[in-house]
Amino acid sequence: MQTEPQRPAYRKKTRKKIKTRDEWTDTDWKEAVWKHFSSYIRLRDCMKTTGTTHQGKCVTCKRMYPYNKLQAGHFMPGRMDCILFDDEAVHAQCYRCNVVQSGMWPAYYNAMLVTYGETWIHDQLAKWTLDEKKYTINELKALEKYFMMECDNVEEQFNRRVFCTTR
Predict the structure, then answer these.
(1) Residue numbers of the domain that contains 57
(2) What total of structural domains would you count in the chain?
(3) Is 65 among the domain residues?
(4) pTM of the complete model
C-alpha cells in the first residue's frame, strides 16, 4: 500500500514592519538620496543632450533612449561614498552600457576627457583611491533635499523653455 507523500511544512510569512523616516539607517537614507540623485542626473543629461526631459543620449554609446530607460552611471567603478553622489562623475547611461558592459569604461573615459580634461580625470582617480568620505545621516538628509530641488529646477527650466518657444 502506497502512502501519499507528506506536504512540506511552510513557514508562515511575516510582514516586514515599515520603518518611519526616524528609524531609517544610513543605507535607507542612501537609497532615498539615490532615487532623487539618479532622477536629477537623467533629467540634467536629457536636457543637455536633447533639450527635453523625455529622452536623452547615453554618454558612452551616444544612442537615444527614453528618460526611464536611462540610468545614472558612475565614471569610476563601484559605489563608494566618495563618488556615490558626485554629480560631475555620474552621467546618463543605457542599461546595456552601464550594466551589461560594466560601464563601458574606455568610451566613458574618452567622453570625460573631452568634457572635463585630463586633470579632472586624475583628480577623480585620486579621490577614488583614497575613499575617505563617510556620509552622516544629516548629510544624507541635506543631499536628499538638494537633489529634490535640483530635479525641480531642471523641470522648471524645461517648462520655461517650452513655454517661451510656444508663445
Answers:
(1) 25-150
(2) 1
(3) yes
(4) 0.82
Alpha-carbon distance of 125 to 97, in angstroms, equals 21
Dihedral of the CA atoms 118, 105, 74, 153 (nearest 10)? 70
Q: How far is residue 29's CA from residue 137's CA, in Å, rounded to a whole number? A: 7
Query: Is 116 inside any structural domain?
Result: yes
Tens digit of each residue's pLDDT, the chain (167 residues): 567 777 777 777 777 778 888 888 888 999 999 999 999 999 999 999 999 989 999 999 999 999 999 999 998 877 777 788 988 999 999 999 999 999 898 999 999 999 999 999 998 888 777 767 788 999 999 999 999 999 999 988 888 776 565 55
| b/e burial code for range 30-54 (CB count within 10 A of at least 16 → b) | bebbbebbbbbbbbbbbbebeeebe
Q: In this structure, is residue 12 part of a structural domain?
A: no
